[in-house]
């Protein structure tokens, strides 16, 4: 069998590509679109495998190099990597920087989470990577990379070959050697992950060059996580005339004010707030959660009755305490709420429930907040002075509650999905659900199952995958039964820079469409409009860019295909009548008992404005969506306002990024960041 080199087809122009276009492409997605941070919205997946040129560029693949023991070649690479960094840290001269030519392919990406800067960055191309490594030499001095020998069983030696596409007669395999490593810098320790391609370059150590490199800070010296062998003793043995039992000490966790002030005040006790509080506690930073609901977990309990997580259990663990092996794959909302409440107590977190933040003012001179908090029951107002405020009220922001002409004339019920409960009381009646994503489908399915006659108003297009097929393909190899430990899975997934992530998501959605052809064809047959996400990246591509626009099918798609749930496509509501609506195409839907607006949510900054006021909100940056590098904008990072941090995202993102947010706050507290 002959294997073509990557240069047998014209290599693409590898460069940092800023935000692309919000255009729509009616052609199938292309591989080239993976090189854009914001590719166009497409309606068909990519049609071909990833070409080896996207990994190897102008290099010649050497597949025989990785057929034997991987350890010697990986160790040779890491040894030269360390030697090169040592030289650059001592003298970031061009001659020393040029040693990286033998270690990194020209089009590589370096993704960093606070190991060489105090922010998130993705550097594209050898020239920009050289600049980044040169810049860190004066302050961070990243060094001493060692292959991690403690990784779990799925990555026993922390060295493995990962293959996306096997070799063909006319193309090399699309694969790399994955190497997990530890390292240190001036401030602490971190985790690294290399994706190394095997090339025929005599100067490449071990015959390997990096296609992607990830560096992420994992612990700060002096604030290391108290885990495992460094965990607290939990008892005070010997004579102690002032001994306090645990229950009394625990009561003190809920008493704040006066001389006892939290370093961090966390507004919101959902997954973001709980994960952040847990991370800070384990790293020795006092925090207090303010939760407006009666109990921790009510933010889930109070949502619509049939809500069950669409993500599987392996993806949804909280920090430090995973779900037990008996936990169901998909978690009902009330069960999750109870778990949150238990988690807050088991992690000994400090929280106040039934309380609302009513105002906040920041003193730029003292770098402290004055936050007023009202008791929802007694009306009593308490003032606290934290140094940091973490807004953890959910990344979605305020409910997007549109108004319509003549809606006051409507005699039925009109409300947003955020306050919807159940369709139980609408048996035999007509219901309209405005929107066509997860919440809309779930609510419409509940209406149908309760005996109502629902119609979905699909105004644009929806990316649809099935829970039992598409979701399995998307999480395969990482978040599944028998998969790697959660920390390992998170490291592998979060280490993927934007270009490779787009490529992987394109192929995942392509395979999903193949295996779900029957489902997609049945929806197309009745006129339900679907898309393939941005550049064919499917569900995750839409989630990262806009936070929605998709449905993970758990039954509603079949009901739509069987015409048991009605739908109206491509129009808006023009106006209401006493008993129904008139659409913009002139058609009507009459005898409506209820209209549910599953119309999504606004930017999180709108919620910040409501809670903290204009003075604070006017200094904040917009949040969510991808920045120029391909990282999520503002979330878990510099918000634009000193001492103010956004925390949001699904359970997996909250778990991973809560640690980085805690480390960033500690860096400020330790004076590492001006």
How would you name the CATH homologous superfamily of the largest domain? Answer: FAD/NAD(P)-binding domain
CATH topology of the largest domain: FAD/NAD(P)-binding domain
Counted beta strands: 27
Helical run tally: 18
Q: Helical content, roughly?
A: 25-40%
Helices and strands: which structural class?
alpha/beta
Are there runs of 5+ residues with pLDDT below 50, and where?
A: 1-18
Shape estimate: globular
Largest sheet properties: 7 strands, mixed
What proportion of the residues form beta strands (DSSP E)? Answer: 15-25%
CATH architecture of the largest domain: 3-Layer(bba) Sandwich
State the end-to-end CA separation. Answer: 59 Å
Radius of gyration: 26 Å
Number of domains: 3
Summarize the structure.
With 674 residues, the protein is α/β, with parallel strands linked by helices. Helix content is 26%, strand content 22%.
Question: Any overview of this molecule?
Answer:
The protein is α/β, with parallel strands linked by helices. It has three domains: 63-220, Nuclear Transport Factor 2, Chain: A, CATH 3.10.450.50; 257-397 and 603-669, FAD/NAD(P)-binding domain, CATH 3.50.50; 407-597, FAD/NAD(P)-binding domain. The protein is built from 18 helices and 27 strands. Strands 3, 4, 5, 6, 7, 8 and 9 form a seven-stranded mixed sheet that branches. A five-stranded parallel sheet has the order 12-11-10-16-27, covered by helices on one side. The chain has a five-stranded parallel sheet with strand order 17-26-18-19-22, covered by helices on one side. A hairpin with a 5-residue loop joins strand 14 (368-375) and strand 15. Helix 6 (271-282) packs across helix 18 (651-669) and helix 12 (498-515) crosses helix 14 (538-546). The longest helix has 21 residues, at 70-90. It is globular and about 75 Å long. The chain starts with 23 loop residues before the first strand and ends in a 5-residue tail after the last helix. Residues 1-18 have low confidence and may be disordered.
């Amino acid at each position: 069998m002959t294997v073509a080199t990557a240069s047998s087809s014209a290599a693409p122009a590898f460069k940092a590509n800023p935000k692309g276009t919000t255009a729509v492409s009616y052609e199938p997605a292309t591989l080239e679109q993976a090189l854009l941070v914001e590719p166009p919205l497409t309606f068909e997946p990519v049609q071909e495998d990833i070409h080896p040129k996207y990994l190897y560029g102008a290099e010649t693949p050497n597949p025989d190099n990785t057929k034997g023991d991987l350890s010697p070649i990986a160790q040779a690479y890491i040894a030269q990597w360390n030697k090169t960094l040592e030289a650059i840290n001592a003298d970031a001269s061009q001659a020393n920087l040029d040693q990286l030519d033998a270690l990194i392919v020209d089009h590589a990406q370096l993704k960093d989470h606070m190991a060489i800067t105090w922010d998130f960055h993705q550097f594209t191309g050898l020239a920009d990577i050289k600049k980044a490594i040169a810049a860190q030499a004066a302050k961070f001095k990243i060094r001493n990379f060692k292959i991690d020998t403690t990784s779990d069983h799925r990555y026993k030696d922390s060295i493995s070959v990962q293959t996306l596409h096997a070799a063909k007669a006319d193309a090399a395999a699309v694969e790399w050697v994955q190497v997990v490593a530890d390292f240190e810098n001036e401030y602490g320790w971190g985790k690294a992950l290399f994706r190394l391609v095997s090339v025929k370059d005599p100067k490449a150590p071990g015959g390997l060059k990096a296609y992607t490199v990830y560096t992420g800070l994992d612990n700060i010296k002096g604030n290391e996580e108290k885990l495992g062998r460094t965990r607290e003793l939990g008892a005070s043995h010997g004579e102690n005339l002032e001994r306090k039992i645990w229950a009394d000490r625990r009561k003190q966790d809920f008493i704040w004010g006066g001389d006892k002030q939290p370093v961090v005040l966390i507004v919101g006790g959902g997954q973001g707030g709980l994960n952040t509080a847990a991370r800070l506690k384990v790293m020795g930073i006092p925090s207090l959660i303010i939760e407006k609901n009666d109990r921790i977990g009510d933010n889930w309990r109070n949502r619509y009755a049939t809500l069950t997580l669409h993500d599987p259990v392996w993806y949804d663990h909280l920090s430090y305490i995973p779900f037990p092996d008996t936990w169901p794959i998909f978690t009902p909302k009330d069960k999750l709420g109870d778990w949150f409440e238990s988690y807050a107590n088991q992690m000994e977190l400090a929280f106040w429930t039934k309380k609302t933040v009513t105002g906040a003012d920041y003193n730029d001179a003292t770098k402290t907040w004055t936050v007023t908090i009202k008791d929802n029951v007694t009306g009593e107002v308490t003032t606290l002075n934290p140094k940091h405020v973490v807004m953890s009220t959910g990344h979605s922001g305020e409910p997007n509650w549109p108004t319509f002409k003549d809606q006051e004339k409507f005699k039925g019920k009109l409300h947003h999905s955020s306050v919807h409960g159940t369709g139980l009381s609408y048996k035999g009646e007509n219901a309209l659900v405005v929107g066509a994503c997860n919440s809309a489908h779930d609510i419409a399915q509940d209406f149908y199952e309760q005996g109502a006659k629902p119609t979905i108003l699909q105004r644009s297009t929806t990316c649809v995958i099935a829970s039992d097929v598409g979701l399995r393909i998307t999480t395969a190899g990482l978040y599944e039964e028998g998969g790697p430990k959660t920390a390992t899975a998170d490291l592998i997934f979060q280490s993927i820079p934007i270009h490779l992530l787009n490529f992987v998501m394109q192929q995942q959605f392509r395979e999903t469409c193949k295996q779900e052809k029957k489902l997609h064809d049945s929806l197309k047959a009745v006129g339900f409009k679907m898309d393939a996400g941005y550049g064919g990246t499917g569900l995750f591509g839409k989630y990262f860019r806009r936070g929605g626009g998709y449905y993970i099918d758990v039954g509603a798609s079949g009901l739509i295909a069987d015409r048991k749930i009605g739908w109206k496509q491509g129009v808006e509501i023009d106006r209401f009548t006493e008993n129904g609506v008139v659409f913009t195409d002139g058609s009507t839907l009459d005898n409506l008992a209820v209209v549910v607006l599953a119309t999504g949510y606004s930017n999180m900054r709108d919620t910040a404005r409501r809670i903290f006021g204009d003075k604070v909100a006017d200094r904040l940056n917009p949040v969510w969506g991808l920045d120029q590098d391909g990282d999520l904008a503002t979330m878990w990072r510099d918000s634009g306002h000193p001492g103010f941090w956004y925390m949001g995202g699904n359970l997996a993102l909250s778990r991973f990024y809560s640690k980085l947010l805690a480390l960033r706050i500690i860096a400020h507290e330790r004076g590492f960041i001006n």
